[in-house]
Design a protein that fits this description.
globular, six-stranded parallel beta sheet, 14 strands, 365 residues, 44% helix
C-alpha cells in the first residue's frame, strides 16, 4: 500500500518522522506539497506575502491536479489535509471512482470556523460555501481523521456523518529527544519557558502580552521564537522575543527548556489542537497551556498530568501558576517526566504511524 499525503507545507519534524516510520513498516510514502516549512516561516514583504498566498492556494491546487492524474500502480491511501481548506474535497473529486484509491480527510483546521475565529469577516454566501465544502469532505471521503475527540464530536454534529472516523494525533518525531530524559533543576537555575512556532490569529496572545508587560517574575526566563501577527504584541515585554528557529537550532532550544507554552484563543477549542504540543512533550517539557478548560488540549494535559491549564485572560492565575512552577521544582520534574513518557510513547511518530497503517488497511478490507 502507498500513502500519499497532500498538504501545502511540508518539511516539519512531525512530517519527516511520520514518513520515516511508515517506511520502516514497509509502506511507500509520498508527500505532495508546494513549500517547505523553513521557507514558510521566512520573513516577507507585502509582495512576497501575496506570492506565498498564491502558491499555497492556487499553486497547491494546480500541483494536486497534476499529481492526481498520474497512473495508480498499487492500492493507494490519499490523505489530504485541510491546508488549504478545499484540499480534501479536491482530492476526492478528482480521484477516479474506479481507481484503487481511498481518500482521507485529515482535519488540521475546521472551516469556516478557523476564519471566523481569526477575526476576519466573511459574507453569508462565503460562509455557506465553506460549510458546504467541509460537509462534502466529511460525508464523501472514505474516512475523516481528527486531532482530538472534542473537535471530532463538534464537526460530526454540525457537518454530517462520515463513512469512517478516527482520532489520530499529529504526534512528534521523538527520536531527536530520546536520550534527553528530564532531570531535576536546582533552584540556582532559572526555569526556562519556551514558546516556539506561530503566534497567529487563533493563538491567545493578549494574556501573554499582559504577563510580559507586567512586573518581571523572578526565577524564570521566557524565550519566544515565533512568527505571526501576535509577535508584535510581545515586543517591549520582559520576554526574550526572537524570530523563528531554524531546523538546525530547534532541537537544542527544545532541550534547553523545561516548560513548553501553548496558547489557544477562546472559542478555538472546537477547531484546532496545536501541533507544537507534541514536540514539547517528546522533548520532556511540561506544558503550560493557556486555553479553554473544555478543549482537547486541556484534556490531554490533565489526563497525563503533564502540565498546567490556565484560562485565557486570567493573568492573575497565570502569574501565580508560574510562581508555583518556579518554586516547586519537584512537581516540575514530575510533570516533565510524565510529558516525556507520553511524548516518547503514544504521541511519538512511531506510534502514530501504527495508527495510520491500521486505518489504511481497514479502508481496503
Amino acid at each position: 500500500m502507498k500513502f500519499e499525503f497532500y498538504t501545502s507545507v511540508s518539511g516539519t519534524a512531525f512530517w519527516n518522522g511520520l514518513v520515516r516510520d511508515l517506511k520502516v513498516r514497509g509502506q511507500e510514502v509520498e508527500i505532495i506539497s508546494v513549500m517547505q516549512e523553513e521557507a514558510y516561516r521566512r520573513p516577507r514583504n507585502i509582495f512576497s506575502k501575496l506570492l506565498m498566498r498564491w502558491k499555497l492556494y492556487a499553486g497547491m491546487s494546480l500541483h494536486t491536479r497534476r499529481h492526481i492524474s498520474s497512473p495508480i500502480k498499487q492500492p493507494t491511501c490519499r490523505i489530504a489535509t485541510t491546508n488549504p481548506f478545499f484540499l480534501p474535497e479536491l482530492v476526492r473529486e478528482k480521484t477516479s471512482p474506479s481507481a484503487d484509491v481511498r481518500t482521507v480527510n485529515l482535519v488540521f483546521d475546521l472551516y469556516p470556523e478557523a476564519i471566523q475565529l481569526s477575526g476576519r469577516q466573511i459574507s453569508p454566501g462565503t460562509q455557506q460555501r465553506l460549510e458546504s465544502i467541509t460537509s462534502r469532505s466529511i460525508e464523501r471521503c472514505h474516512a475523516s481523521v481528527f486531532l482530538g475527540e472534542r473537535i471530532q464530536k463538534y464537526a460530526l454534529g454540525k457537518y454530517g456523518t462520515a463513512p469512517k472516523t478516527k482520532v489520530i494525533p499529529v504526534g512528534a518525531d521523538a527520536q531527536s529527544f530520546a536520550s534527553t530524559q528530564p532531570e531535576h533543576l536546582g533552584t540556582d537555575h532559572p526555569v526556562r519557558f519556551l514558546y516556539c512556532g506561530v503566534l497567529g490569529r487563533m493563538h491567545e496572545v493578549d494574556t501573554l502580552a499582559q504577563l510580559g508587560c507586567g512586573e518581571t517574575l523572578n526565577g524564570c526566563e521566557w524565550h519566544i521564537h515565533a512568527t505571526g501577527k501576535g509577535v508584535r504584541s510581545l515586543r517591549g515585554s520582559w520576554f526574550q522575543v526572537r524570530g523563528p528557529l531554524s531546523s538546525s537550532t530547534w532541537p537544542s532550544a527544545m532541550k534547553a527548556a523545561q516548560v513548553g507554552v501553548v496558547s489557544m484563543l477562546e472559542g478555538s477549542e472546537m477547531v484546532v489542537l496545536p501541533s507544537k504540543t507534541f514536540s514539547a512533550l517528546a522533548a520532556g517539557q511540561a506544558i503550560l497551556a493557556i486555553c479553554p478548560k473544555d478543549s482537547d488540549l486541556a484534556d490531554l494535559v490533565l489526563k497525563h498530568d503533564c502540565g498546567w491549564v490556565v484560562a485565557p485572560g486570567d493573568v492573575k492565575s497565570l502569574r501565580l501558576q508560574i510562581q508555583n512552577i518556579v518554586t516547586n521544582r519537584d512537581e516540575l520534574l514530575a510533570k516533565r517526566s510524565n510529558a516525556y513518557k507520553v511524548g516518547q510513547g503514544i504521541y511519538s511518530s512511531d506510534m502514530v504511524a501504527d495508527k495510520w497503517v491500521a486505518l489504511g488497511e481497514s479502508l481496503f478490507e
